[in-house]
Specification:
The structure holds three protein chains of three kinds. Chain B is mainly alpha-helical. Chain B is built from 13 helices and two strands. The chains are: A mainly alpha, B mainly alpha, C alpha/beta.
Chain lengths: ~300, ~300, ~250
């Protein structure tokens, strides 16, 4: 047995330093909040209406594209307000014309219908706005970095986190503190109950679809400066939305927030330590949760079961 | 996905998609399991063939077998994990695994060529005992070869569906619990169907790689999985054995014919699909089924 | 030698003991009924006995073999079969195909891939036999979903008989059957005991009293009484449990 020399250099593992860790951690939270915002509309639609809306990603994209157009005309704040409203209206139209014919049928029909819608609208986006992406500059007051004292961090990301948190807070307020919100929340957990309680189910579903679409839209607006605006951007939204719903449980607000943060943080951690696996991480999480805790962390609804 | 030049090549493309969809339909309509990740097996078959040609031996049968077996292997692996589930749970799991395979193809540059994929392999000649080898570069020869392979696959699937094994798959689809209570190990049957379906999709993928001489990670993306679901249902695969073939024909023709006129053919395809799902969910052949029973 | 024995069989759901230390010995060739108010644990017991639920504790023996942790399909292969209160038939298959796939399982042809199933003459013959026994031969080509409710019930029982079970668990087989047909079904069930052992869950007391050799009464997961129909009729605990309920033992 050979004795090792006392000061033989060992192979250094490339550990991130504390600042990199912190910066990526904050990135993870920012991303997580954005993803939760994307997913919250999706989970409400799934919970209350019982549909898997593949078109959620494309509504997100529409939000970004409308913002792009409106911003160049009227500025960022106008885009932030108007774009979700337009997307919400489009959502209502889609629901009235197409989705509602699928109620009562197997969930998979709706999946296929919304898949077709996503496909057509994505191409429509290419037709109207062109194949190549556009970049949206962040509003001037948040361009550049801010000095947090111990490190620099992107101002826009902080605003993004703030806006996401605000939107999530407003949704929470709606669900918890308003009477119609209570109906929506109850419906997200058990849609049959809501009908029994005498609420107009059709109007509720239309509302939730419109509301969920508007949420997708506003998520698209705030994500646009960070992710840039491309026709395929919806795919980057729909997949995490699925994963988050799986992780957090169907129709659960807090489940969505926790799920979103879980996804955001695992991606940013993976980017730090195992960058090549970072894309895979959320799917591995989803598969593991689906196999062992099918209802997710906080889900009560057994929609996914037969 | 690359466009086709020439009608013969178009016909081959239809046959290949038909094979993919038939394999997929075994799982969807005959076992009742919806998979939204089947493009992964198609892609694995394609990469299997490409890697065999580029890194091992330029041989037609070997390439096809490797593609098919690789796809079957991974389908068996995934199937073993998810066979206990069904319905939407099953679908979401296939979606998750499908995406995992996509990202492996996308990121594992050393093996898969990453984003730029694998190119530069030709169609090896087909060795026929007693005759000179057949050059498959000629579109007509390749078409005939593809046709024969498809015929064999179709006969095999047909026999499978009409065998005792096939009736168990039907039973599992219609009432899995009752099938268990008859003494069938339903999880095994679901796994077997998933694996076979994956193998057939892999064979189709390998043929596709031969057709195009290239493989890209895009072949495994979830939208391609969605396409095969769409093709199968559009043609009437839910009610008719030949539905997937019809659906493949419609898809490829739309893709290439409309694609030649406008680059926005996807818009029309999406609309077609929306209409079919809303008006004739049993697909085009489903229309004929209705008229038959009405008589 | 009892055909089925359980030892302190228990299952807990969310803190509640749905089946609570049930020790039972089912005699061969007899018809034993399990009765009790809703929620007493009867269907849960059936789910445990057939391997659909895994018990939290306790054991189950079929003849001399322990079957406690076996999966459903293995227990069925050993000779225990079951019919369901909510019909579980193959709706899109014809009556013939329904029974055939059941017979096929029993004759172990499920793994044959390439032979046409119409060629399995042994399966075909046995299928015809069973269809004769349950008197559905004239309706052989109808799709199961198009049968009358009564015929669907018969098909359900036919499916559970096709495997030649030694022990048959029937979960409310007369549920939804018209009053005039109930007696026929009851007699049919009673005649089954000539060939096999029957364990019956049933709410209709006339039937229970009329055809049972033995009655086991469950309440809140436990067995509270066990004996002949006469004994049960006069049992005070049983009367108390049913008092105020919709069941009449007279």
């Amino acid at each position: 047995m050979r004795l090792l020399p006392a000061c033989r250099p060992y192979r250094r593992i490339d550990m991130p330093d504390a600042f990199e860790f912190l910066s990526q951690g904050i990135n993870g939270v920012v991303m997580g909040l954005l993803l939760s915002t994307i997913a919250v509309g999706f989970t409400l639609m799934l919970g209350v209406i019982g549909i898997i809306n593949f078109a959620h990603g494309i509504l997100f994209a529409l939000g970004a594209y409308f913002a792009f157009t409106i911003k160049s005309l009227f500025g960022f704040w106008a885009a932030l307000i108007l774009s979700p409203i337009i997307v919400g209206i489009i959502g209502i139209i889609i629901e009235r014309l197409a989705i509602k014919r699928m109620y009562g049928k197997d969930v998979l029909f709706c999946l296929l219908l919304t898949f077709g819608i996503a496909m057509s609208v994505e191409e429509l986006i290419r037709m109207v706005w062109g194949k190549l992406g556009h970049s949206i500059a962040a509003p001037s007051f948040v361009s550049g970095s801010i000095d947090l004292g111990f490190m620099l961090y992107s101002k826009y990301r902080l605003l993004l986190a703030g806006l996401s948190a605000l939107i999530l807070f407003l949704v929470w307020l709606f669900l918890e503190k308003t009477s119609y919100g209570a109906v929506v929340k109850a419906g997200a957990q058990d849609s049959e109950m809501v009908g029994v309680l005498g609420n107009n189910i059709n109007r509720l579903r239309t509302f939730v679809f419109g509301f969920g679409s508007a949420l997708a839209g506003i998520a698209g607006v705030i994500a646009a400066p960070l992710w840039s605006v491309r026709p395929g951007m919806g795919n980057d939204a729909i997949m995490p939305a699925f994963v988050i719903v799986v992780l957090g449980g169907v129709g659960s607000f807090w489940g969505t927030v926790i799920g979103g943060l879980a996804v955001g943080l695992s991606i940013s951690l993976a980017v730090m330590f195992l960058p090549r696996v970072s894309d895979l991480v959320m799917y591995i999480l989803a598969a593991v949760v689906l196999l062992f805790w099918p209802r997710g962390i906080m889900g009560e609804k057994s929609l996914l079961e037969e | 996905m690359p466009l086709i030049k020439g009608y013969t090549a178009l016909a081959s493309e239809i046959l290949i998609y038909a094979m993919f969809a038939l394999g997929f339909n075994l799982l969807l309509s005959y076992t009742g399991l919806p998979s939204f990740g089947h493009a992964a097996f198609f892609g694995i078959g394609a990469y299997g063939l490409a890697l065999t040609q580029l890194k091992w031996v330029k041989d037609l049968w070997l390439g096809l077998f490797v593609g098919m077996l690789a796809a079957g292997f991974f389908a068996a692996l995934v199937g073993a994990i998810i066979a206990r589930k069904r319905g939407v749970y099953f679908a979401l799991l296939t979606l998750a695994f499908g995406q995992m395979f996509f990202f492996i193809a996308f990121r594992w540059d050393e093996v898969t060529g990453g984003e730029t994929g694998l190119t530069g392999f030709d169609r090896p000649p087909l060795a026929i005992p007693g005759l000179p080898p057949l050059n498959l570069t000629a579109p007509m020869n390749f078409y005939l070869f593809t046709l024969i392979v498809l015929m064999v696959v179709m006969i095999l699937i047909w026999r499978l569906i009409h065998s005792p094994f096939g009736s168990v798959l039907q039973a599992v689809k219609q009432n899995e619990l009752r099938a268990k209570y008859l003494g069938y190990n339903t999880i095994f049957y679901k796994w077997a169907s998933f694996t076979l379906s994956g193998m057939i999709s892999g064979l189709a993928g390998a043929m596709f790689a031969l057709q195009h001489g290239s493989v890209f990670p895009q072949y495994l993306y979830w939208t391609e999985s969605g396409n095969v679901v769409m093709i199968t249902i559009m043609g009437g695969g839910v009610v008719n054995f030949f539905g997937p073939v019809l659906g493949a024909g419609i898809f490829v023709i739309l893709q290439n014919a409309i694609g030649a006129l406008t680059e926005h053919w996807l818009f029309l395809l999406g609309l077609t699909f929306i209409l079919i799902v809303m008006v004739i969910p049993e697909g085009i052949l489903g229309l004929f089924k209705k008229t038959k029973t009405a008589q | 030698m009892p055909i089925l024995t359980t030892q302190d069989l228990t299952i807990v759901f969310g803190g509640l003991k749905a089946v609570d230390e049930v020790s039972l010995k089912i005699e061969k060739g007899k018809l034993t009924s399990v009765i009790g108010p809703n929620g007493a644990g009867k269907t849960t017991l059936f789910n445990l006995l057939t391997g659909f639920y895994k018990p939290s504790s306790g054991k189950i023996f079929f003849n001399v073999n322990e079957i406690t942790s076996l999966p459903v399909h293995k227990i069925v292969k050993l000779g225990i079969s079951r019919s369901f209160q909510i019909l579980k038939i193959f709706n899109d298959m014809t009556v013939f195909e329904n029974i055939r796939v059941a017979v096929q399982a029993q004759m172990n042809h499920g793994m044959e891939f390439f032979v046409s199933r119409d060629r399995l003459t042994d399966v075909w013959r046995r299928t015809e036999e069973i269809l004769e026994e349950i008197r559905l031969t004239p309706k052989v080509h109808l799709k199961a979903k198009n049968l009358s409710y009564g015929d669907k019930r018969i098909l359900e029982i036919g499916l559970s008989l096709a495997g030649n079970p030694h022990l048959l668990l029937l979960d409310e087989p007369t549920s939804g059957v018209g009053a005039h047909e109930k007696e026929g079904v009851a007699r049919f069930i009673h005649d089954l005991t000539k060939k096999l052992t029957v364990l019956l869950v049933e709410h209709n007391m006339d039937i229970v009293m009329g055809i049972s050799d033995r009655i086991v009464v469950m309440h809140q997961g436990r067995i509270i009484a066990d004996g002949s129909p006469e004994e049960i009729k006069n049992n005070d605990t049983v009367k108390e449990v049913y008092l105020g309920g919709k069941y009449c033992l007279a």
